[in-house]
Amino acid sequence: xLTLIAERGEGTATSLAGExxxxxxxxxxxxxxxxxxxxxxxxxxxxxxxxTVRPDQLDATARWMAGxxxxxxxxxxxxxxxxxxA
Length: 86
Hints:
The chain is α+β, with helices and mostly antiparallel strands. The chain is 65% helix and 14% strand. The protein has 2 domains: 1-53, Orthogonal Bundle (Arc Repressor Mutant, subunit A); 55-86. The chain has a two-stranded antiparallel ribbon with strand order 1-2.
């Protein structure tokens, strides 16, 4: 969903539901979660809400996830070392 919005510059629940294998209701719920997480921003245009990606927040989230992945890689390497020593 984020990719679709980013590629288009913006998207509505209806336009996104037309391209995804889920219902419009599911898209609306997902957009609400993304909005609360600060990854998208919704602005009302008449009866529609148009969503855009917030690249600054997305970058911050990607950096956080990369750090978390690095920590897990280190933990898994330690487990592997212990298992191979046994």
